[in-house]
Amino acid sequence: MEIRSVKVSDYYVISPLINVWWGGRNMSDMLPKLFFKHFTQTSFIAENDGKLVGFLIGFLSQTHSNEAYIHFVGVHPEYRKLNIGKHLYKKFFKVVKQNNRSMVRCVTSPVNKGSIAFHTKMGFEIEDGDRIIDDLSINTDYDGPNQDRVLFVKKLN
Ligand SMILES: CC(C)(COP(=O)(O)OP(=O)(O)OC[C@H]1O[C@@H](n2cnc3c(N)ncnc32)[C@H](O)[C@@H]1OP(=O)(O)O)[C@@H](O)C(=O)NCCC(=O)NCCS
Known about the structure:
Elements: E1 2-5, H1 10-21, H2 34-38, E2 44-48, E3 51-60, E4 67-75, H3 84-98, E5 103-108, H4 113-121, E6 125-126, E7 131-133, E8 136-138, E9 150-155
Parallel strand pairs: 4-5
Antiparallel strand pairs: 1-2, 2-3, 3-4, 5-9, 6-9, 7-8
The structure holds coenzyme A (COA).
């Protein structure tokens, strides 16, 4: 497996895959082309024999000079649990550290139990929200009405 930087043409490959990879949830609108144009130094593609099997879209925070943010990560359903997500995160962490930053943040939906398990395994902590459901701290309406989120943060060593 190889990891390379994102390029604009990846948008046309990835965008139609997103809702399928997210199990039918409507997610592709949250990843417009701008991310493939303006965040190429911190966004990565995983390829297996030239086939795209995973991606990570992230960026360095403009507002918080010690922080970086992972907006999207996705791995082809047939290639999960093979450490592709982990490799993409490790690559991102390396670039974040090279940019003298030590905090990484991301958010996910409370329904996305796979994402919560993955981020916990990757060493992220869940930030306190305003309520707890099934032992999970949740930020109610974080991204708008009925758009609750779980907030993750990881301090890089
Ligand atoms: C979440 C996702 C990116 C994980 O990618 P992946 O390549 O399967 O993850 P990895 O193989 O690198 O797993 C890393 C660790 O997390 C664990 N893990 C990954 N997915 C898990 C799951 N669904 N349940 C429990 N543990 C999980 C692995 O077992 C591994 O643990 P280990 O270090 O003890 O071996 C992938 O499942 C995916 O694309 N999901 C759909 C899209 C999505 O929800 N993205 C995240 C929100 S933006």
